[in-house]
Design a protein that fits this description.
Elements (H helix, E strand, L loop, with lengths): L3 E7 L6 H9 L6 E8 L5 H5 L7 E6 L4 H11 L4 E4 L5 E2 L3 H10 L4 E9 L5 E5 L23 H7 L10 E3 H7 L9 H10 L4 E12 L10 H23 L6 H12 L8 H16 L8 H4 L1 H8 L4
Parallel strand pairs: 1-2, 1-4, 2-3, 6-9
Antiparallel strand pairs: 4-8, 5-9, 6-7, 6-8
Length: 313
């Protein structure tokens, strides 16, 4: 069996970290390594992690630097041909890696799966079937135009139906081309996916092979304005490149109008279209001034980012 590396970014999930680790080490696909990067936990997570005895397990301890940093450090250490991420409050199905690796060996570069949504007590709240249900926000109009299209790439533009970094397994070839996570607080997984779909084959496996935990300390619950800013950032950065792959440029006016209507009925910025336009203008101006990757300036400089967040409604 092919070697798989799993990275767990761990931060203050003492009630859940044991289940997460056990779910990896108990995989039916046994040829794996597990790298846990503890991102400065202040609870007793490390007491457990330091006690784990398994030759496939490695623990790295660092000062708090954010989930994206912990994931990137783990991925940089990984030796596997295939790579996976598991957040420290989620749980792998026992056959997740075996099933996902088979799909990757069949030609996919990245796979996600259906998932079981669970609460803080591990009670199953429902099954999320990719883009077909439980979308994180409504489309305009309800149901949208993208939702009717049975395609990974198109539906990924509508919303992050993959839901979490825990729900991606991918090839080393893809990682070495796309790179790691950028310093987004809420949407680093969505950004990674949208970079991946520009050049690589991404597929959804229609089986619930992950338990995704919802609880009061989920990152997504902490700052709505910042989250909405990141949604606008995602569209400003990715909408045009991904649409260029899907719909080649055409001089046909009727086709252009149809494409515009298609996107208008599917992309929901929740009243913050102006902010996306502001971000696009900022990126274009900085590109003309010679800056490489100017979109990252908005993520790296707090005062600059806050000016845009202040415009969020």
């Amino acid at each position: 069996m092919s070697h798989v590396s799993v990275v767990i970014p761990s931060y203050n999930h003492e009630p859940y970290i044991r289940q997460a680790v056990d779910s990896v080490l108990a995989q039916s696909h046994v040829n794996l390594e597990l790298i846990v990067v503890d991102d400065g936990s202040s609870d007793r997570s490390l007491d457990y992690l330091r006690s784990v005895r398994d030759s496939r397990f490695r623990l790295v301890e660092q000062a708090n630097a954010g989930a994206h940093n912990a994931i990137n450090r783990g991925l940089a250490m990984a030796q596997g041909e295939y790579l996976a991420i598991l957040n420290s409050d989620d749980i792998f199905h026992p056959d997740r890696l075996a099933i996902c690796v088979r799909r990757l060996q069949a030609g996919a570069d990245l796979v996600a799966t259906w998932l079981e949504v669970i609460d803080h007590e591990s009670k199953v709240l429902g099954v999320k079937k990719g883009w077909r249900n439980m979308l994180p926000w409504p489309t305009m109009p309800p149901g949208g135009r993208l939702a009717a299209v049975d395609a990974f790439v198109i539906n990924l533009l509508q919303s992050n139906f993959v839901s979490t970094t825990s729900n991606i397994v991918f090839t080393r070839r893809l990682y070495e081309s796309v790179g790691g996570m950028v310093p987004l607080r809420f949407a680093h997984d969505w950004d990674f996916l949208l970079r991946a779909v520009r050049s690589f084959r991404c597929e959804l496996i229609e089986q619930p092979l992950l338990q995704y935990r919802i609880h009061s300390s989920n990152t997504i619950s902490s700052n709505r304005s910042w989250m909405l800013f990141e949604i606008c950032w995602i569209y400003a950065v990715h909408l045009n490149p991904v649409m260029a792959r899907l719909l080649p440029a055409s001089p046909d006016v009727s086709q252009v109008a149809a494409e515009a209507a298609f996107m208008a009925g599917s992309v929901n910025l929740q009243g913050n279209d102006k902010v996306m336009w502001m971000i696009q203008q900022f990126i274009e101006r900085q590109c003309r001034a010679g800056y490489a990757d100017p979109e990252l300036l908005l993520l790296e400089y707090e005062a600059l980012r806050q000016e845009f967040i202040n415009c969020i409604v």
